[in-house]
Write a structure and sequence with these properties.
By secondary structure, the chain is of the alpha+beta class. The chain has helices at residues 69-81, 103-118, 125-132, 139-144, 178-182, 198-208, 231-237, 239-252, 275-280, and strands at 5-24, 30-50, 55-59, 86-92, 148-152, 156-159, 166-171, 256-257, 264-268, 287-292. It is built from 9 helices and 10 strands. It is globular and about 55 Å long.
Length: 304
């Protein structure tokens, strides 16, 4: 029997636990090293099969660009597969835009995973990954479906086990254009590779596991490894990023920008104040949530 609809399909956001810019290719693309972790702040999508081949998007929340990444992903899969089917795609945005949390890329990945199922294509993950790589740097990660060490320009992915920590995540009112951050003269482009330096690998793995510092005391609340190389130019361009980082630092003892910003997060322990307490104290126009890290994408089982 032909599947006609898929409802309440999640598209989770991500955090960059660290982000090092380790070089630049001759074509101008930056070479990165990062650990991406999935979190439970997610958009929700609904899919209904059409037999006329049309692809139509319906915005249930904020209005998206007319030809957004979701429609481009749907067209790419439709063209590559040769299917005659179409779809109505409805999107309820919850992940803030311009935050560095991968919301648009995650939506596009969910479109690929859901339409692969709705249209009965049964493409394997590797085939979807190849198509995802043509759509944007972060889309393959969400199709990959596991927390990952990300290298190159985002196309090199390897599984990185990250325990399900809690993160306080806030986005100030301002958003940041990614291109401006990567073109900034303040951007450091020669960070040491965490992969090549064994001591850094050990330190990163200790931190990712939330393990002990000297004396055996568990250091749950700190961000002790690496940095986000995009944060200094982002803060120079947007004072709200620096303000948000200080705001979290004052409450949780740590903070770091994710991706190209402007969202900032803090790793928190079990003694975190009730969510309503610190959310109510946020400046007007900011949004935030207490998020839990996910071990894998909610749609992990939708392809092999």
């Amino acid at each position: 029997m032909t599947l006609r609809a898929l409802y309440d399909v999640p598209a989770p956001a991500k955090l960059n636990l660290f982000l090092h810019v380790v070089g630049r290719r001759p074509d101008g693309y930056h070479l990165l090293e990062s650990v991406f972790v999935l979190i439970d702040w997610a958009d929700t999508l609904h899919f209904e099969r059409r037999d006329d081949g049309l692809l139509c998007r319906h915005d249930l929340g904020e209005a998206l660009p007319a030809d957004d990444l979701c429609l481009r992903a749907a067209r790419a899969l439709q063209t590559a597969s040769g299917t005659a089917a179409g779809a109505d795609i409805s999107i309820l945005k919850r992940v803030p835009s311009g935050a560095g949390m991968g919301g648009g890329s995650s939506d596009a990945a969910t479109v690929l995973l859901a339409l692969n199922r709705l249209w009965g294509l049964d493409w394997p993950r590797q085939k979807l990954l190849a198509l995802a790589a043509t759509l944007g740097a972060d889309v393959p990660f969400f199709v990959f479906g596991r927390n990952a060490l990300v290298q190159g320009i985002g196309e090199q992915l390897s599984v990185q086990e990250v325990p399900p920590h809690l993160y306080a995540v806030i986005k100030p009112a301002a958003s940041l254009p990614t291109a401006d951050i990567f073109n900034s003269p303040l951007l450091r482009r020669d960070s040491a590779s965490a992969i090549l330096l064994g001591s850094l690998v050990s330190e990163a793995q200790t931190w990712l596991a939330g393990s002990a510092r000297a004396g055996g005391e568990v250091e749950v609340g700190t961000i002790s490894f690496g940095r986000n190389d995009l944060q200094p130019p982002a803060q120079a361009r947007c004072s709200e990023v620096a303000e948000a980082a200080r705001w979290l630092e004052d409450r949780f003892g740590n903070s770091r920008m994710t991706g190209s910003g402007s969202a900032v997060f803090a790793r928190v322990g079990t003694g975190v104040p009730p969510e309503a307490t610190w959310l109510e104290a946020m400046p007007s126009g900011w949004v935030g949530r207490l998020c839990r890290g996910l071990p894998q994408h909610p749609l992990w089982g939708w392809t092999d």
